[in-house]
Structure formats: structure tokens, C-alpha cells
Design a protein that fits this description.
The protein has 353 residues and is an all-alpha fold. The protein has 2 domains: 7-162, no CATH class; 169-329. The protein has helices spanning 7-10, 13-24, 31-67, 72-78, 83-112, 122-136, 138-165, 171-202, 208-217, 229-278, 290-329. It starts with 6 loop residues before the first helix and ends in a 24-residue tail after the last helix.
Amino acid sequence: SNYRLPKYLTKAPNLLFQNLRLQLKHKLNKRKQQKFIHSRLQLLDQQQRLDIHRNLWQSYLTLGSEQQIWHKQVYKRAKTNEHESCQQFVQHRLIELHQQYDQCTTALITQSQLCPPKLLPLNILDHNLKEFVQLQQKYLSNKINSRLTRYKNIIHEKELFQTLSNYHPTVDQENTIDQLVQLKQKQLKVFEEFLQLETRVSIQFLPEDFDNLEYFIAPDLYSPLIQDSKAIEFQQQRYKIIQEAKRIWLNIHVDVYEMKYKEYEHRYQQDLKRFEFNSSNNLQQNETSLFNCFLVYIDHRIYRLKQEIYYEKLPVYRRKLLHHRRHLKSTKKKLVTIFPTIIVDFIHHPFIA
């Protein structure tokens, strides 16, 4: 098992036991009691995490075996797209998780024999500690549930596409459907790139062309030898020019993304109207048209892909940016930011003689 202690068990022990005293309604002043509680918390935390992942991988096995579509995590870790190999990999992973869970349960039983006297009865203690652990793991639980939901959305998208195919569209209709899907795909790419720019702005790490802009419009060719009021005024003017230019450049970037997004939407709506007219004769017994079926499919697909951008792609992109920014921070000269900056004039400061 690659279990690592979570942050709440490794940082600020005083704060941890302060919260535990409230949870357990017990003083926990003795060192022996604190040591036992901390060890038991580690085991309960590990057990709960294993249980969460057991349920996740059991869902992978159930859904993947039925639908023959596996979660991308399975394809990546199994290093194959072959159905039976993926199924065997998930089954093996489940066996590992069950074994680790049983080992953790055994360790809890063994450790319970070391329970200090004058502590709460073990069943009450474990109940309260499990509640505390579940509260701390709320984020993990929500993250896993969200991942499972996105996996189910992929499966549902396949089902909707199969329903669409059951209408037996003509070759022209198939081509139109493909064109509409591609237009939405390109539009979502623009949307993703805009969110990436938004992420860069939020962490104050703009694209490199913004840095080049700074060097181009106001190169630092001259620095006064005497730092008097004129020198400070010169530096402040240079700073303001660069800052305003960067803000204008950023607004231009945003406007370009907006125009691209609207352009794809306009083309999509035009093609969609033609498709509606051409598919009006494809009616099933329940009077649901090929066109309406396509709308259900494309709406679900767009929703799924947006969720993928928000919860999978952007967090990875942000982490990479932060890592890159930390790497450059020690070597790169501090540049002008687009954010408002407080400037204190120490030469004319009223509290300086």
C-alpha cells in the first residue's frame, strides 16, 4: 500500500487534538491517550480511504463489464485498450484493495488491545473517530463521486449515440452530424483556451508574449543614478505605461476568444437549421425526430466535455503552471503585473523627516 498520511494528521497537532476534544467530548490531556488516538486515526483514515477506492473500482468493474467501456484510468494503468485485459486488471486491483482493507482491519483489532484506561469505551470512541475521519475526507469522497459521474456520462453518451444511429441517417445526414459535432468541438477548444488564459491571470503568470511586450514598449534603457523625485516619477510612469499596455493586450486576447466562440456558434446554428429541415421526415413511432435525438446527444456531449475541462484538464494545467512559475521565480526578473499595485513614495512620505 502507498498510503501517505493526510495533512490533517501531519500538521498542527495542537489544533488536531483541540478538534478531537470537541468531537469526543473528552480532555485527552495524557500523552499515552493522544498517542493511541493518533495511531488509531491513521488506521481508520487508511481503512476509510481503502473503502472509498474499493467502491470506486467495484463500480469500474460493474460498468466496464456491462458496457465494455472502461474508465480512462483503467486504460492508462492497464496499458491496453483490450476489454478482457482491462477487466482482469480491475479484478486484480480489487483483490489488492480487499487484502489491504482486511490488513487494516486486523491492525485495528490488534491496536484496540492497547487502549488506555479511562478513555471512552472502544465502540463509542471508534464511532466518533470515524465521523471525524469522514468529515476530513469529504473532499476526497466528493472528488471520487465526481470522477464516477463523469465516467457514467461517457457511457450514457455512447448510449445516446447508439440511439441516434438507430434512425439510420442518410450519408448526407451523417456528414452533417459529423460537421456539427466538429464545430462544437472547435468551439469548446476555444472555450478551454480562454479558461487557460483566465487561470494564468488568476495566478499572475501571463503568457510569454506579454513579457515580450514589456521589453518592447518600454525597455529599461536608463536608470537614474540619483533616486530623487524625478527618478521615481520616471519609474512610475514607465510602470503605468507597461501595465496599461498589458491590460489592453489582455482585453484584445479576450475579445478574440469571444469572437471565435461566437463565430463557431453562428456557423453551428446555420448548419443546425439546415439539418432540422433535412431530417424532418425521419420520424419513429414515438414521433421523436432524428433532429431532436441529435439535440439530446449533443447537449449531453457538450456538458460532459465541459465537466472534463473544469475537473480534469484545468486542475492539471494549473498545477503545471504553478510548478513552472516556481522554477522561473528564482531566475526571472520581476515583471509588471496587470493587477492594481500600491506605490508608496518614500521621498515625500508625510511621516518621513
